[in-house]
Automatic annotation (TrEMBL):
Residue ranges of every copy of the BHLH domain listed in the record: 14-66
Species classification: Eukaryota, Metazoa, Spiralia, Lophotrochozoa, Mollusca
GO terms, biological process: cell differentiation; circadian regulation of gene expression; negative regulation of transcription by RNA polymerase II
Protein name (Swiss-Prot/TrEMBL): BHLH domain-containing protein
Keyword Nucleus: yes
Length: 129
């Protein structure tokens, strides 16, 4: 408790407010991403109240189900061979996926948004100062 008070004394009011805004912003992003994940998982999408842990657990189960369905589909297509090579599986997956997934991710345009902390809150000073 004493540490938190002394840490706050070393910060200006604008730094404290900026930190609060940053925490709130990150919390909103996290909540939005959980809701997106929840909407993608059929077993929890229709439920009214679901904890974050349940969302993640159900997402893992759903991914496992999708993986098994993909393997079954691949085995059906190749004639039930048990010796599936990694290259064969990779090419099959690439055929099944839309083209948008095969393209590399575009770099973010705004550097500041990628940072966990705003640049003006950084304790480091430029080398020339």
């Amino acid at each position: 408790m004493v540490r938190a008070v002394t840490a706050r004394l070393n910060q200006s009011a604008s730094q404290i407010i900026a930190k609060k805004h940053l925490k709130l912003h990150l919390r909103r992003i996290r909540e939005r991403e959980y809701s997106k994940l929840r909407a993608l998982v059929p077993s929890v999408a229709s439920k009214k109240k679901v904890t974050k842990v349940e969302v993640v657990e159900e997402a893992v189960r759903y991914i496992e189900e999708l993986h098994q369905a993909l393997l079954d589909r691949f085995k059906k297509k190749t004639g039930n061979n048990s010796g599936i090579t990694e290259d064969a599986m990779r090419s099959f997956v690439c055929q099944m996926m839309p083209l948008a997934f095969n393209q590399p991710a575009q770099p973010r345009k705004n550097y500041e948004k990628q940072q966990k902390r705003a640049s003006y809150l950084s304790l480091r000073r430029p080398k020339d100062c």
